Amino acid sequence: MRAVLVDWLVEVAAEYKLLPDTLYLSISHIDRFLSLNALPRHKLQLLGVSSMLISSKYEEISGPHVEDFCYITDNTYTREEVVKMEADILKALKFEVGNPTIKTFLR
């Protein structure tokens, strides 16, 4: 399921013209969150968009808004659900969001 989520996030990043660093950081946040918490399959897309929201706030000059991420999920999740998951991720990661990604090591 992770592979499906990552493929979808690549498409989301392309749709919103996000920096590659944003995508890599999102995947890193997902992996770190899932290593600490069990999550039902139906919440993986929510985890993905919330991670990308965090990463876009960190990396992008003018990133997509919460509503854009709700829209890209075909409004499967509400604004409140995305914001709640964002808070859950930040809490689980202890607000350490600027960690090195795979791209850092490939430079």
Q: What does the model show?
A:
This protein is mainly alpha-helical and about 110 residues long. It has one domain (about 1-105): Cyclin-like (Cyclin A, domain 1), CATH 1.10.472.10. It has 6 helices and no strands. The chain has helices at about 1-15, 20-35, 45-60, 65-70, 80-90, 100-105. Helix 2 packs across helix 3 and helix 3 crosses helix 5 (about 80-90). The termini are far apart. The model has no long low-confidence stretch (mean pLDDT about 95). InterPro entries: Cyclin, Cyclin-like_dom, Cyclin-like_sf, Cyclin_N.
Quick recap:
With 107 residues, the protein is mostly helical. It is 68% helix and 0% strand. It starts with a helix and ends with a helix.
Structural Rg: 13 Å
Structural class: mainly alpha
CATH topology (fold) name: Cyclin A, domain 1
Overall form: globular
Going by CATH, the homologous superfamily would be Cyclin-like
CATH architecture: Orthogonal Bundle
What kind of sheet is the major sheet? Answer: none
Task: Please mark out the parts with pLDDT under 50 across 5 or more consecutive residues, or reply none.
Answer: none
**Succession of helices and strands:** HHHHHH
Number of self-contained structural domains: 1
Strand content: under 5%
Helix content: 55-70%
Number of strands: 0
CATH first level: which class?
Mainly Alpha
| Spatial separation of the terminal alpha carbons | 29 Å
